[in-house]
Each structure stands twice: as structure tokens, then as C-alpha cells.
Design a protein that fits this description.
Elements lengths: L2 H17 L1 H16 L6 H26 L7 H17 L4 H24 L5 H20 L9 H8 L1 E2 L2 E2 H19 L1 H11 L1 H6 L4 H27 L10 H11 L11 H20 L4 H25 L1
Antiparallel strand pairs: 1-2
Length: 320
């Protein structure tokens, strides 16, 4: 090969590694864990990991939209609890499963809508607004359950998480479908491009004729709806709906989104990156559990991963 061809080949390799670095990290971690942990690569263990991360993944899709607009939603864990509680109450009242799920999602839409209204129309800082809503939503879940867990849901309700399509658990299928729809929304629909535009520069987007307030509101509504749906699947998997469920979920979800390449400064993000980030955290968590690492060390590792991801994002922005 001549010098020009060699240089072109090297540039292509560099571009490939830059664009697929998150996937390459995921593959590397999977290989290392498969070689060091017995039965880690078995179909049963892989499906178990996928089922566990499905709840985080569904929430992460909504969180990606919010962060793309330059916002943040730390109330998702409380919305998970409220969604599961509402769905279980409806199921115990004899409602069809579809009605129970829709009822929970509508509650999530309301919670997300309030978040979005406070951020977009009342101009509150996203962290402050969603911090207040975190407590309000959690308190609502405690009030409607009188602080007690719900048990005895119908077999149809429990099937939402215990069922399989071929060898793939239903929650995993739901997660992948939502990721697919999220990716299509970003790439093929105007709203998805507006998310990126608003996060890139709110003022420029407004001057371009974009209703930036409505765009931000939409992002929070989607995040709330998906968080409530995740709560339904979680309560179905556990066989109980507890108002204390979901505490700390926002940390893991935000970590998945940031690791996936979505900038906390807004304007940059992709669904496939968030999927890889979710799977990376799922692999790390599963490996640490199988190695009998204590929970507080796992929390330390997750926090460290987030700090590194954010630092790399800031350094990238500085270079640009």
C-alpha cells in the first residue's frame, strides 16, 4: 500500500474505534468476565442479567431524552415506586392487566408533566425541581398504600416479568422495543432533533422557531411514563409493590446514560450508546455479585465509573 492508502486506512480504524469505543469496552468486559467467572457466559446467566437491567434500561431511554435537552430528572426512582403501586392496586381491584399498565403509565405522565412544567415554564433548575418532586412522588406512593406493600397480584400481572418469548424474557423484549422506538424518534422525527437542538443551545433553538418549552416538557413526560412502566415490570418481577422501591435508581440510570456518551451538558446523545452503557453497568454489577463483593464496594465502583465518564465528557468538550 502506498502512503496515502495507509493513512486513509489508519484514519478509518481511528474513526471506527472512536465511534464504537463503548461497544468495544462492553465486549472487552464480557470476554474478561467470561474467562474469569465460571458460567458467566451461560445463556441462563445472560438472560438473568438482561432481565435485571431491563428496568434500568427502560428508564434510561427517557433519561436520555431529558439529558439531551440539558436537563436532569432525579425523581425517576420515586416514579418507579408510584407506577408499581398504582398498577398493583388496579390489578388487585380486578382490573385487566392492560388497564393496570395504562393507569400506571398515565400517573407517570402526570409526574413527568409536573417536572417538565416546573423546569420549562416556571424556569426552575432541573435538579431543584425534580428533587422536590422526588419527595412528593414518594410521599404519594406511601399515602395511597398507607406505607404498606401490595401482594397477591394476578397471574396475568406476574406474567409480565416471568413470561418468555422463545428464550427471551418479556421485560427484555419490552426494553429493546423501547430502545428501538427511542432511536427512531431521534433519527426520524422532528421532536427527536428538537431534543438535540434545545440541549445544544436553548436560545438558538428558540430563535429558530422551536417551542423550547414544549420540547422540554415532552422529554420529562416521556421520562415519567417510562419510569412508571419500569415500576410495573419491577413489581411484577418481585411479586410485590412497595412504596420504598426504586431508591437510588436515578444514580444507576444517569450513569448508564453518561457512560453511553450522552453529554450532561446537553445536545449530544444516542439510544444505542445508552443501551451499551446500561449493559456495561449490568455486567459489572453481576460480576461483582458473583464475586461476592459487598454492596458498598459496588456503589463505590458505580460512582467511580460515573466520575470517569463525566470527566471524559468534560475533557472532550474542552478540546472541541
Amino acid at each position: 500500500m502506498n502512503q496515502k492508502t495507509t493513512k486513509s486506512f489508519k484514519n478509518s480504524v481511528v474513526r471506527f474505534f472512536n465511534s464504537q469505543r463503548i461497544l468495544l469496552v462492553l465486549i472487552f468486559l464480557a470476554l474478561v468476565m467470561s474467562l474469569t467467572i465460571e458460567n458467566f457466559a451461560s445463556v441462563g446467566n445472560i438472560m438473568t442479567i438482561a432481565r435485571q437491567v431491563s428496568v434500568y434500561g427502560i428508564i434510561a431511554v427517557g433519561m436520555t431524552f431529558v439529558i439531551m435537552t440539558g436537563g436532569i430528572d432525579i425523581s425517576v426512582g420515586s416514579t418507579v415506586a408510584l407506577g408499581g403501586v398504582v398498577a398493583s392496586i388496579l390489578d388487585l381491584a380486578g382490573m385487566p392487566v392492560v388497564v393496570s399498565v395504562i393507569g400506571a403509565v398515565l400517573v407517570g405522565v402526570i409526574a413527568g408533566g409536573i417536572n417538565g412544567f416546573l423546569v420549562a415554564y416556571c424556569r426552575m433548575l432541573p435538579f431543584v425541581a425534580t428533587l422536590g418532586m422526588l419527595n412528593i412522588i414518594r410521599a404519594t406512593a406511601l399515602i395511597i398504600t398507607n406505607g404498606s406493600a401490595k401482594y397477591g397480584m394476578s397471574d396475568s400481572y406476574l406474567f409480565l416479568s416471568s413470561g418468555y418469548f422463545w428464550v427471551i424474557p418479556i421485560p427484555v423484549i419490552v426494553m429493546l422495543l423501547i430502545f428501538l422506538l427511542g432511536g427512531i424518534l431521534i433519527r426520524r422525527f422532528t421532536l427527536g432533533r428538537y431534543f438535540l437542538a434545545v440541549g445544544g443551545s436553548d436560545e438558538s433553538a428558540r430563535l429558530a422557531g422551536i417551542n423550547t418549552k414544549a420540547v422540554k416538557l415532552s422529554a420529562y413526560i416521556i421520562c415519567g411514563a417510562l419510569s412508571a412502566l419500569a415500576g410495573v415490570l419491577l413489581s411484577s418481577r418481585l411479586g410485590t409493590a412497595q412504596p420504598s422501591t426504586g431508591q437510588g435508581y436515578e444514580q444507576t440510570v444517569i450513569a448508564s446514560v453518561v457512560i453511553g456518551g450522552t453529554s450532561l451538558l446537553g445536545g449530544v446523545g444516542s439510544m444505542i450508546g445508552t443501551l451499551w452503557g446500561t449493559l456495561i453497568l449490568g455486567l459489572v454489577s453481576s460480576a461483582l455479585n458473583q464475586l461476592n463483593v459487598q454492596q458498598f464496594y459496588q456503589t463505590f465502583v458505580t460512582g467511580l465509573i460515573v466520575l470517569i465518564a463525566v470527566l471524559l465528557d468534560v475533557m472532550k468538550k474542552d478540546r472541541q
